[in-house]
Design brief:
The protein has a single domain, classed as Rossmann fold (3-Layer(aba) Sandwich), CATH 3.40.50.150. Helix content is about 30%, strand content about 25%. It is built from nine helices and seven strands; from the N terminus they run H-H-H-H-E-H-E-H-E-E-H-E-H-H-E-E. Strands 3-2-1-4-5-7-6 form a seven-stranded mixed β-sheet, with helices on both faces. Helix 4 crosses helix 5. The termini are far apart.
Length: about 220
């Protein structure tokens, strides 16, 4: 019997990734799963080869924006990698010349892996984006990157507003979503609500771009009001 096709309906999928996409957005399940997956994560997602392309696509998308015009020019801006995992976004940002990168993640063991990269100024594990952040994180970053969080089985689109709270007024929020998540989660409707509320303003998007070997992704940039 053939195994079920991945929900993105594109090619093959690693069993660990398939399990991750079925976590149902439950924070306790997500924490336990990633605590156990941390040491093998990079291998399983293809980060040791060229299979995992989301971070490279995200940083390229960001770099091609009119950053000076958007008020976030220069490589010394403060960047927060929200849901940093093992630090793949941090590596891509450091390779692009950025020097002030902090990272937060729900899983302390994933943060331990990220710390080995040597590219972060500060890293904090046990950070639940669904809970009110400590005051020092509120409106603190010039740019917040969120990669691999708004995906199947993980954060609901309502948490975009929580991520926006971490960006200083006038700063940028840069988000990836899997195509399948975007199509089925009501993500765009929630963004439209935040736009109408005057909380953020869409400034750029890149759709159906390389994400992983089994899926395409969408990439978005928003100015936080």
């Amino acid at each position: 019997m053939n195994s079920p096709a991945p929900k993105d309906k594109l090619g093959r999928i690693d069993p660990h990734i398939a399990e991750a996409l079925e976590l149902g957005g439950n924070a306790d399940k997500i924490l336990a799963f990633y605590e156990g997956w941390a040491e093998d994560y990079d291998f399983d997602v293809g980060a040791l080869g060229d299979d995992y392309q989301a971070t490279a696509t995200m940083v390229s998308f960001f770099s091609n924006l009119d950053l000076d015009g958007l008020g976030v020019g220069g490589t010394d801006i403060t960047i927060l990698d929200a849901g940093c995992g093992t630090g793949l976004v941090g590596v891509a940002l450091a390779s692009a010349g950025y020097t002030t990168i902090d990272g937060i993640d729900l899983s302390p063991r994933m943060v331990e892996q990220a710390n080995r990269r040597g590219v972060y100024r500060e890293l904090v594990g046990g950070f639940d984006l669904g809970a009110p952040p400590e005051q020092r994180w509120r409106q603190a970053a010039d740019v917040v990157f969120v990669c691999g969080v708004f995906t199947l089985g993980h954060a609901p689109p309502e948490l975009v507003g929580s991520c926006a709270e971490l960006v200083r007024p006038g700063g940028l929020l840069v988000i990836t979503t899997r195509k399948a998540y975007f199509d089925g989660s009501g993500y765009q409707a929630h963004i439209d609500d935040l736009d109408r509320q005057g909380r953020l303003e869409p400034v750029a998007e890149l759709k159906d771009a390389p994400y992983t070997g089994d899926s395409l992704g969408h990439f978005f940039a928003y100015t936080v009001i």
